[in-house]
Amino acid sequence: MKSIYLIVATTFFLSLSSFADVAVITYNAAQLKKHGLDFVPCTNRRIQPQMENLFLNEDAPAHSQKYFVITLQEMWTKKVFDATEAAVNKMGYEMFPKDHNSVKSNGVITVTNMKILEANFTPYAHDTYAHKGILYTLLQNDEGKKIGVLNIHTGFSGKKAPSSNHLDQFMEIGQFALNKQKESDYFIIAGDFNSGPNMVLEKEKYVSLESVWNLGLIPVMESAKMIRIPLNEATWDQSNNPLVYNPTASIKFFNLIDHKNTRWGQNDSTMDHIFVSKSVEIESSKLVFNEPVPLHCPNRTNEEGKSTMSDHYGIMATLKLKDPSIVTDVIELKIPVDLNE
Questions:
Q1: Distance, CA of 111 to CA of 191 (rounded, Å)
Q2: CB-based burial label for 282 (10 Å; 0-12, 13-18, 19+)
Q3: 3-state per-residue secondary structure call for 281-336
Q4: Nearest to 40 by CA among 48, 29, 50, 52
Q5: Does residue 25 contact residue 316 with C-beta atoms inside 8 Å?
Q6: Does residue 296 contact residue 46 with C-beta atoms inside 8 Å?
Q7: 24 and 288 Cβ atoms separated by less than 8 Å
């Protein structure tokens, strides 16, 4: 008797339904001072417009869905922390961290209208002076579904070569995500990765910064089973950018230290991103906080007295949460077959 084995692939799909829509927003607010100087001009003057557009206005993007989570970066100063806390309390939202001492060395804050079950900050093992890291929150909506969220801000690769710290941080993010995904039904990673498919610095001395994206971040996210929200519009745009327009002596100084050039020397780039687990269906994505607003910022506003609220734009994605009871699996059944029958 001769036998062979047939491989039978079976996929089980249980009920497919949607529990709720979630808005995810990531935004680098550029609230940063160095040695008492504004790293991005008009730091304090940009706070109130940011609070209004983030939380307080009726048409704030977060209000468009039943649930939302906002990951904020570069919220370093005490003034912006206090303003965020006041706005969050006024609206009845939740935020983490809850004290400025936990923010001033890393600048990341997560705000949501869902219940925060767990929250902690893990610094990168490899970093520079900034002491950045991973802000993790485990959220729960009214239907009892758990959403794990990583709020990310990484280092930066300069003109000479990809930064080993930068690449190591990608690895740390990926490993952290793999370790935490089992605790939640859905998983989101959002923030400023200082990496993108179109990032280019002037006079680069190695293969374009795209290599940091193609060979660094993307393989890590794929290994962590995360899908990128499809948005390739520039989130760092030189047009009407308060960091680029009429740079002050202090900005030129910082540029000279960081980039060996008094000019920033970076093309329009997509460096802010949102990644989601495969249990999430992506409904839409768009830029937010990209329109100039009335702002008293001398020499950095247009003819209408307007400027953007940061040197970054925000990204908003609306997500549909699939039923986590969906089980998709492939089972190999080895079935002996008698060819003589």
A1: 13
A2: middle
A3: EEEEEEEECCCCEECCCCCCCCCCCEECCCCCCEEEEEEEEECCCCCCCCCCEEEE
A4: 29
A5: yes
A6: no
A7: no
pLDDT of the residue at 11:
35
Pairing of strands 3-8, 115-123: unpaired
Helix (H, G, I), strand (E, B) or coil at 213: helix
Please give the structure tokens belonging to residue 332: 């190999």
Closest CA to 269 of 174, 202, 172, 189: 202
This prediction's pTM: 0.86
Give the distance, in angstroms, between the CA of residue 107 and the centroid of all CA atoms in the same chain: 13
Q: Could you give the count of Cα atoms lying within 13 Å of 67 in the half-sphere of its Cβ?
A: 19
pLDDT tens digits, one per residue of 96-131: 999 999 999 999 999 999 999 999 999 999 877 668
DSSP three-state, residue 167: helix
Please classify residue 20 by burial: count the beta carbons closer than 10 Å to its beta carbon, then call 0-12 exposed, 13-18 middle and 19+ buried: middle
> Cα dist. 76→116, 292, 309 in Å?
22, 23, 16
Asked if residue 4 lies in contact with residue 321, where contact means CB atoms within 8 angstroms, the answer is no
314 within 8 A of 68, measured Cβ to Cβ = no
pLDDT digits (tens, 9 = 90+) for 122-156: 999 987 766 899 999 999 999 999 999 999 999 88
Q: Distance between CA atoms of 154 and 173, rounded to whole angstroms?
A: 10
Answer left, alpha or beta for residue 164, where phi above 0 means left and psi between -120 and 50 means alpha: alpha
Written in H, E and C, the secondary structure of 172-189 is HHHHHHHHHHHHCCEEEE
Contact 297, 271 (CB under 8 A): no
| Average pLDDT per block of 10 residues along the chain, 341 residues long | 37 40 96 84 94 96 95 97 98 97 95 98 84 95 96 84 86 96 96 88 63 88 95 85 67 64 70 95 95 88 89 96 59 35 35
